[in-house]
Amino acid sequence: MNRRTFLTTTATCLTLPGFGIAAALDGFEITRTDAEWRAMLTPLEYQVMRQEGTERAFTSPLDKFYDAGMYHCRGCDLPLYASDHKYDSGTGWPSFWQAQDDAIGTRIDRKFFMVRTECHCRRCGSHLGHIFDDGPQPTGKRHCINGVSLVFRAA
Questions:
Q1: Catalytic position from the list 73, 119, 121, 144
Q2: How far is CA 137 from CA 53, 87, 105, 133, 142, in A?
Q3: What gap in Å lies between CA 115 and CA 43, rounded to an integer?
Q4: Is there a catalytic annotation at residue 144?
Q5: Quick check: bond before 43 cis, omega within 30?
Q6: Which string of DSSP letters, residue by residue, matches the chain?
Q7: What does the alpha-carbon distance between residue 84 and residue 70 come to, in Å, rounded to a whole number?
Q8: Residue 43 and residue 23: Cα distance in Å, rounded?
Q9: pLDDT tens digit at each of 155 positions of the chain
Q10: What domains sit in the chain, N to C, each tagged with a CATH number?
Q11: Strand pairing partners for 22?
C-alpha cells in the first residue's frame, strides 16, 4: 500500500458514521454489533439512528402527538424527553425545548456545508437529531428530533 492510498483510506474511514477514532472512543454504555442493530431496527430506523440520517418532515406520528408521558430512546429505552417539554415548532419533526438531565450527548455536525449541533443518546449513541437556537423560552433551544429514534411511554 502506498502513502496516498493509506491517507485516503484513513481519512475516508474517519469521516464515516460509526467508524474511526471517534466511534472507538465514544465508550457508550450499551454497544451492539452492526448485525444486532440491523436485526432490531427497521431500515429507516437504522439509517437515522446508526447512520445519522433524517426522516422526511411531517411523516412521524409523534410530531403532532401531545399525550402526557416520556419519550425514550428506541435503541436502549433511556428516558430522553418529557412531554411537558414538547412543543409544535412547525418544522415537521417532534420538537422539545429541553432534554432530561444526562440523557443526551452532543457533537458538532459539519455535513452539508453547515455547522449544526447533533444530539445522540448518551447511553447507546443513537442519532436523535439536531439542536438549534430558535426555540421557545426558557431555554431558547429547539431539539429537532427524528420520531423514528423515539418510543413514547404514557404517564
A1: 144
A2: 28, 11, 21, 10, 10
A3: 27
A4: yes
A5: no
A6: --HHHHHHHHHHHHHSTT-HHHHHHH--SS---HHHHHHHS-HHHHHHHHH---PPTT--TTTT---SEEEEETTT--EEEEGGGEE--SSSS-EES-PPTT-EEEEEE-GGGS-EEEEEETTT--EEEEEES---TTTT-EEEE-GGGEEEEE-
A7: 9
A8: 21
A9: 555 554 455 444 444 444 433 444 458 999 999 999 999 999 999 999 999 999 999 999 999 999 999 999 999 999 999 999 999 999 999 999 999 999 999 998 887 787 889 999 999 999 999 999 999 999 999 999 999 999 999 99
A10: 24-154 (2.170.150.20)
A11: none
**Cell of residue 136, nine digits:** 421557545
Amino acid identity at 100: Q
The single-letter code of the amino acid at 151 is: V
